[in-house]
Every structure is written in structure tokens, then in C-alpha cells.
Amino acid sequence: MSNSALSLFRVLGSISGFLQLTSLLGLLLLLFKAVQFYLCRQWLLRVLKQFPCPPSHWFFGHKIQMDEELQETLKWTEKFPSACPRWLWGNRIFFLVYDPDYMKVIMGRSDPKSQSTYRFLAPWIGYGLLLLNGHTWFQHRRMLTPAFHYDILKPYMGVMADSVRVMLNKWEKLINQDSCLEISQHISLMTLETIMKCAFSHQDSDLLVRNFQSYIQAICDLSYLIPSRLRNAFHQNDTIYRLTSAGRWSNHACQIAHKHTDQVIRQRKAQLQDEEELEKVRRKRHLDFLDILLFAKMENGSSLSDKDLRAEVDTFMFEGHDTTASGISWIFYALATHPEHQQKCREEVQNLLGDGASITWDHLDQMPYTTMCIKEALRLYPPVPSIGRKLSKPITFPDGRSLPKGIIVTLSIYALHHNPKVWPNPEVFDPFRFAPNSSRHSHSFLPFSGGPRNCIGKQFAMNEMKVAVALTLLRFELLPDSTKVPFPIQRLVLRSKNGIHLHLRKKLQ
Fold this sequence. Notes:
By secondary structure, the protein is α+β, with helices and mostly antiparallel strands. The protein has a single domain (66-506), classed as CATH 1.10.630.10. It contains 19 helices and eleven strands. It has a four-stranded mixed β-sheet with strand order 1-2-7-4. Helix 9 crosses helix 15 and helix 15 (306-336) packs across helix 17. The longest helix is centred in the N-terminal third of the chain and has 45 residues, at 3-47. The N and C termini lie far apart (107 Å). It is found in: Endoplasmic reticulum membrane; Microsome membrane.
């Protein structure tokens, strides 16, 4: 046999040996993963046996369509007391909580946000106040709290009213007596304009206004893509996800959102180069949100990095307009479907404001019935349907049941607000649940979360909701469209699968 033939056989033999070794290592790795999966699953079944739940597939978990999650969770709420595990896929579970006593225990602790779930938000909003944990979160929270001092919020009343009136003027041009309007997009534009002017010192700019619509669409896309990715076992790896069509779509939406916030930051930095504007800011007793970030000094004396600055701007740009827009949209729908309560609110506002030429800070506490209706709508339709925590240490609940460290807990605000053991006849719109002398559990109503990590902008949001409701009821009668009943779905905020369509009837002055 020639030397060349011998060499060929040696090469083929070495390749064959390498492939055999690779196959063996692959099988061993697969066996290791299978054993690891089995042991983890057995541990989870053991620690969760105190909490019954519907039957689930060993790998596919509880197979629930994303758009049907809220309705399915309500069925579980009635059947399984206080809490139950939801198997997502494999060994991935969310421990659903919808009992106020359980909520109180969890929210009173300092458990961090779960990085395995909230990390999917990071490419978009970075590590700002929503995603930070521990001392860094506390430092940023303390730094930003002055931006929501009542002396800061008071002057915003005029800005909010002007933005609402612009929206209402647009509605007058779009409607006739029998027309129907999808209101949520208009409300999103209004709340975005408000937050831009109030928190980010935005002055009217045609360029930014043109970008509002693309920014809102990008947020809507991300609000779908992120929860969808969370529920897909094959999209957990960042590299694999980036190669998918959903990953490319998500990256494009993030770029649009970042372009918008980067422009806001650049514009304000350019304004502060002007000595007159800089002196005006220095004379302020309280700075607004963006100026606090630009002038902030950390404990070591350094300014916020560009990365941290954009993370806080991206976070508040989203939370400051999208959650409020969701709240106002659903409040309008609730009032449209309950005309007797709508009329009582209108009469209260008319007695207080007359023709609505001006609405002031002092007016906000003089509309008790309207406030009751707003709160009842927020109970039925909480803007943030759920929040998550990862247990940093074991927990024991008031009924004696317990969970170990490491479990991901989902606090279902939506299920809590619809829990018949907490709220009798929960689907009935009854504003008197929030009458001044009514009593309820401290953690039964959580539209702005609770505990130390509650929503920093809750007073801002409530003010804007009251202004929007008051001025709208003076101008229009709201009526539902029986052919397009909204279907609530869980995204990052509560949305309607088919939009929120209302008939708007102009009120005679």
C-alpha cells in the first residue's frame, strides 16, 4: 500500500475518532442536562406541593395563549386561594399571587426584580429606576424624589390642561354626532406631549412632534415583543433571539425609542449652554426631572454617566406616558358604559369649574365623586397588570404556607383587583367602594404598586387623570360602541386587543 493511501486512512481514522469523541461528549452533556432538569423539577414540585394548580404538561407547562392570560388567571383566582404556580415551560414557573395579605408580606420586603425576566427590558430602557436593585436603586430613587415635590407638580396643571384641550379640539374636528373614535392613540399622544413638557423641559418643536407617532408605535411594538419573548423557551438566549425576525423587529423598535430620548437629552443640554437659561435653572427652588439628572452628583462626586442618564430618561419617558394613557383610556371606557356615574361626575365638575376655562391645583381635591369613579376604573383596569420579584430569602405567608429562596413571584394586580374574596361582585362598577368612610385592606388596591418600590410618579399620574376626565366631560358625552367591545390583554401595560372605541357627543355649552 502506498504512503499516500496510508496517510488517507490515518486522516479518516483521526476524523472518525474525533467525531466519536464529540458524540460521546454531546451525549454526556445531554444526559447531564436531563438529570439536572429532572432534579430541579422534582425540587420545584416538592416545594410547591402546598399550592395546588391546574394540571400542566411536563415540558410545555400551562399552555395559555398570551391574549387570554388575564381571563384564565381570573378563573384560577376563584379556584385556588391566595396564590398558585403557573408553569411556563420546562422548569420555568411564575408563582402568581392575588391575595392582599400575601401582597403585604412580599411588598414589605426588599426582594429584587427578577433578572431572568426583567432583563429583557434592558436593551430598551437600560438599568434605570425600574430595573435597578439594592443601594444603587435607593440612591437613584432618593435623587429623583424631589422631581415630584408638590411645588414642582403645581405648575404642571396648566400644561396638562393645555395638552388635554389640544386633544379635545382635535376630537371636535374628527367627529360628528354618530361617529366612533379609537381614543387610545390620541390619549397616548396627549400624555407623551404632557410628560415631554413637564419632565423634560420640552418646548414646541415640529421635529419632535413628528417623531411622537413613531415613538409611540415603537413602544407599542416593544410592549408586545418583550412579553412574547419571555414566554418563548427558544428566545431566551440573546444571540439566538437577535437572529430571529422578532429579535430584529425588537432591535429596530429600540433604536427608534433611543433616537427619541437621545434627541430630548441633546436638546436640553444645548439649551443649558445658554447662560440665561442656565441661570434660570439655578434660581429654581426645585428642578424638574431631566434637570435633576443633568445636574446630579453621585456619592463619589461624579455625574451620572451617559448610559445611566439615558436609562432614567428612557424609563420615565415610557412609564410617565404609557401607563397614564392606559389609565385614562380605560377610565373613559368605564364612564361611557356607566352613564349615570358619568353624569354625576359631569355635574360635579360643572359646579366646580363652570365652563372649564381654568383648572387649578386646589380643584383636584374638590371632586370627590369623580375621584371615586377614577379609582374604581383603576381597580377594574389597572394600568400595570402585574409586577415581579425574585425571593432573596425564604418567605412564610400568614396562612403558614411558605416558599424557599429563588422562586420568581408574580404579583398579579389585575387578579387582586378582581378577586371575589377581596372585592364582592368584582366585575360590577361601584364607585362607592372608594367612598370617604369605606374600609378596605391596605393592600387590596394597588394601581401604583406598593411598599418602598411604589410608583414614584403616582401623584403626577392621578393629577393628569383628574384633569383629563374633568375637561373631557365638560366637552363631550362618552358613549360605548356596542360593536367593538374592548378586550383587555396583558402587555407591559393593560391594553385592549381591539382598541377602545367610543362615540363622542359634543355637549352644548
